[in-house]
From TrEMBL:
<dbReference type="Pfam" id="PF13669">
    <property type="entry name" value="Glyoxalase_4"/>
</dbReference>
<protein>
    <submittedName>
        <fullName>Glyoxalase</fullName>
    </submittedName>
</protein>
<dbReference type="InterPro" id="IPR037523">
    <property type="entry name" value="VOC_core"/>
</dbReference>
<dbReference type="InterPro" id="IPR029068">
    <property type="entry name" value="Glyas_Bleomycin-R_OHBP_Dase"/>
</dbReference>
<feature type="domain" description="VOC">
    <location>
        <begin position="7"/>
        <end position="146"/>
    </location>
</feature>
Length: 179
């Protein structure tokens, strides 16, 4: 448990080839099924306070309560993922904490000296922020709001992993507006 935000809920890995990464995780690690979105619909994206149009592919699966996120950048828009790759890194880039009280938790982190580096929104009540404090690769903290459709998607992904038999290892993201 983090003294700031509770339990880590997600590990985010930056990869060069998301299809190969999903194949590795489901065949070698037994984790799945993977819910894959070739272009995540990010709204209000900001990096260092400036707006950009990002194109990221994301795959999500659970291993118990812990969600694994695979991320492949598809354009050169500024992002912490791109920074991580330009520094020569691949693999674990961030840990995420989920919140149902985004504003209060964001204020708490900022009071602790954390500053916003990258932020946006995925669906209604699906805000996220990555803080600009990294002691070594893989230690970026993301705060992710899970009140709206994104939270329901995360519940669906967790439920699909419970007792998963290996069948249908890669599935499309459902339309967030339907959740």
């Amino acid at each position: 448990m983090s003294r700031f935000l509770g339990a880590i809920r997600q590990l985010g890995y930056v990869v060069d080839d998301i299809e190969a990464a999903m194949a590795h995780w489901h065949s070698a690690m037994g984790v799945g099924p993977w819910f894959y979105n070739p272009r995540v619909p990010i709204e209000d994206y900001r990096y260092d306070g400036r707006a950009y149009e990002v194109h990221n592919s994301v795959a999500l699966a659970n291993s118990g309560a812990l969600q694994v996120e695979l991320i492949q950048t598809r354009n050169d828009a500024p992002s912490m993922y791109r920074d991580f790759m330009h520094a020569g890194h691949r693999g674990l880039q961030h840990v995420a904490y989920w919140t149902r009280d985004y504003d209060a938790d964001l204020a708490r982190m900022e009071a602790e000296g954390f500053t916003r580096k990258m932020s946006g929104k995925v669906g209604a009540n699906g805000r996220f922020v990555y803080f600009d404090r990294e002691a070594h690769p893989g230690t970026v903290i993301e705060l992710s709001e899970v009140m709206g459709p994104k939270g329901r998607l995360f519940d669906l992904i967790r439920q699909a992993s419970d007792g998963w038999d290996g069948f249908d290892p890669i599935r499309p993201f459902p339309d967030l507006s339907s959740l």
